[in-house]
Design a protein that fits this description.
The protein has about 425 residues and is mainly alpha-helical. It is built from 18 helices and six strands. The strands form two sheets. The protein has a four-stranded mixed beta sheet. Strands 1-5 form a two-stranded antiparallel sheet. The radius of gyration is 23 Å and the shape is globular.
């Protein structure tokens, strides 16, 4: 079965998977399908995976979790590990109303990552798509595909992806880190570390994007409205994937209204700071004064980006950056706590290079390769983006029959640990 499954992947992979980005597996792609000799005449439906009632659209996946089985839907990776043990390294499963392929072999995953194409086709976030449509606002970068996505994403590469583009903000973020530690100095224990790190990341993202402090870190540890709405937004964005029937698509459910309220607050907050920053930049230009640069000003000066595209990009960075940064830090600290010898080595590195007083400078970070190594290893152990990686197959080769295929590597990094 393992050998046959790998052969099937070879044919399916020949169609290619554009843009392995973070997404939920809900996109559709029509593909002509006629299987060659290398798969022994098999087609998509012959790839092993849950069948029968488990292959029913929307509700089929539900039957594989509590109360119908021992598996918890919120611990999806445990069910995927069971799939791997039962069916092998490639599993076909019905998620929503789409067929998905789950890969568990690192070699196969590498092939998928290397099949990246210029214009990705990824699944969108359903509840966010409904919100954007109802509010009549352009789709966010996370919900954009193809040429439209590339037009917005390509010009931002130099600004956002080069290490030097981020490390130059180290002195500003250093002050926020000091305030964060000071606020926690007198606490013996933290009952909700991920949320406290979310407050820290929100403050950092605010400084990075808008050159301003958002007031999320308070001396008395008071939870600000921004953090309450951020938590509500992220919780509902994540939990809506567990709904068997997405009734919010047809009318405004109570669940959706709470999401809409939180989203309205976050988008209006981002818009308020964008407008203020734009006015500050214009005022500095009119006075021939120097403006202290931030990510927003860097994007505005990037050729190929319109002001509207910058607004959409910076809003995505603001909202998405809060969650991803806090999530990354949570697991990094967890893995360091589980590996005391590595923690001790990193601590010695920090003592040697980080000044006891004053700001951390850009060159300080460049002197700590072991810190970067720890972060990369944490990324390997637990994938940094909760929604993981998915892409949609396209470009038919020798296929004749029509069907929808999505390549999903959902949660695959946690599964790789057991391979």
């Amino acid at each position: 079965m393992r050998h046959a499954s790998r052969g099937m992947l070879s044919n399916l992979k020949a169609i290619t998977a554009p843009g392995c980005r973070c997404a939920v597996t809900t996109a559709t792609q029509r593909v002509d399908h006629e299987v060659g000799n290398s798969t022994g005449g098999n087609n998509l439906i012959d790839i092993p995976g849950p069948n029968g009632i488990y292959a029913l659209s929307y509700i089929g996946l539900r039957f594989q979790f509590k109360p119908f089985s021992k598996y918890d839907l919120r611990k999806f990776s445990t069910k995927m590990e069971a799939w791997k043990n039962q069916y092998g390294p490639i599993v076909r499963a019905k998620v929503g109303n789409r067929w998905s392929l789950y890969l568990f072999d690192p070699d196969d995953i590498e092939k998928v990552f290397r099949a990246d194409q210029k214009y990705p086709e990824r699944a969108t976030l359903p509840i966010l798509s409904v919100y954007e449509k109802r509010q009549k606002i352009p789709p966010s970068l996370a919900n954009t595909n193809g040429i439209e996505w590339y037009t917005m994403r390509a010009p931002t590469q130099k600004v956002m992806l080069r290490p030097k583009a981020v490390t130059k903000y180290a002195p500003k973020l250093s002050k926020i880190a000091d305030d964060f530690v000071l606020a926690l100095e007198n606490k013996d224990r933290l009952d909700n570390l991920p949320f406290k790190l979310m407050e820290y990341s929100a403050e950092g993202v605010g400084m990075l994007c808008f050159n301003t402090r958002l007031g999320c870190i308070t001396p008395d540890n008071t939870v600000t409205p921004l953090m309450e709405y951020t938590k509500d937004y992220l919780d509902r964005l994540g939990n809506h994937f567990y709904k068997a029937i997405p009734s919010y698509m047809f009318y405004k459910t109570k669940y959706y209204l709470k999401f809409e309220e939180a989203a309205d607050y976050l988008y209006s907050t981002a818009d308020k700071h964008i407008n203020r920053t734009l006015k500050d930049i214009q005022r500095a230009s009119d006075d021939n004064a120097e403006y202290e640069r931030n990510l927003l000003s860097d994007l505005l000066s990037t050729p190929g980006l319109t002001t509207q595209q910058v607004r959409r990009t910076i809003t995505d960075v603001f909202i998405g950056g809060i969650d991803s940064t806090a999530n990354t830090m949570t697991f990094l600290l967890f893995h360091l706590a589980k590996n005391q010898d590595k923690q001790d080595r990193l601590f010695k590195d920090l003592v040697e290079h980080v000044p006891k007083m004053g700001e951390i400078q850009e060159d300080t970070i460049n002197k700590m390769p072991y810190l970067k190594a720890c972060l990369k290893e944490s990324f390997r152990m637990v994938f940094p983006i909760i929604l993981s990686v998915a892409g949609v197959f396209c470009n038919p080769l020798c296929f004749r029959t029509m069907f929808s295929v999505i390549l999903s590597v959902l949660g695959v990094f946690s599964i790789m640990l057991s391979v």
